């Protein structure tokens, strides 16, 4: 009897979730986004972490011009599966709406690898927004092969090393060692290897490197600072360094409070 009651409860919960989710979808179609959020939130109380429901609620937040909340829902959908395209798209859109064009490009690009048709326009508009935000007299065309994950938002660009500080608990020391062996460097940097290569490629683009941000800072200085930070990170990861210098914090998700850099980047 108890098993039967338990089965009824599960079935009732599924039915209630479906009803609330459908109600939220209908409210969204009608443009009643606040009510839709309430329905999706109630549905999530019955089935926490449901990706489709989180995506739907995030879309409502975007319509309500609350991209920070949309970003939180998008990040929740990516836990355990960083290839979930709907979550990547919402995250990129939220970052773009927040004016974080460099970081939006990172996630548009990542999604592009899986569904080009879904992310192509986002990549284009992010690249154009980045080019327009750099006070260079020439038109800047950014290479999409790589990530801008270490170009901090303009307000935080005075401290380009911030992103690396969020990845490690490092003690500062002078002149980071350069690793000549490509395989060794790739091993030590891991997911950051492509970022370093991309930044080095950006340095070869004179039109971009000679640009100046709206705050008057040279783009070349920003990129060089980021590369230096990565080299320090490489040295910290080196087995030749004492364990005390190799302590790493759990990599935090790309969030606004840390310059919206998703440390697993990329």
From TrEMBL:
Superkingdom in the source lineage: Eukaryota
Predominant location: cytoplasm
TPR-type repeats, residues: 17-50
InterPro entries for the chain: ODAD4 (IPR040111), TPR-like_helical_dom_sf (IPR011990), TPR_rpt (IPR019734)
Keywords: Cell projection, Cytoplasm, Cytoskeleton, Repeat, TPR repeat
GO CC, one annotated term: axoneme
PROSITE patterns per the UniProt record, alphabetical: TPR
Subcellular location: Cytoplasm, Cytoskeleton, Cilium axoneme
SMART domains: TPR (SM00028)
Stated name of the protein: Outer dynein arm-docking complex subunit 4
Organism encoding this protein: Austrofundulus limnaeus
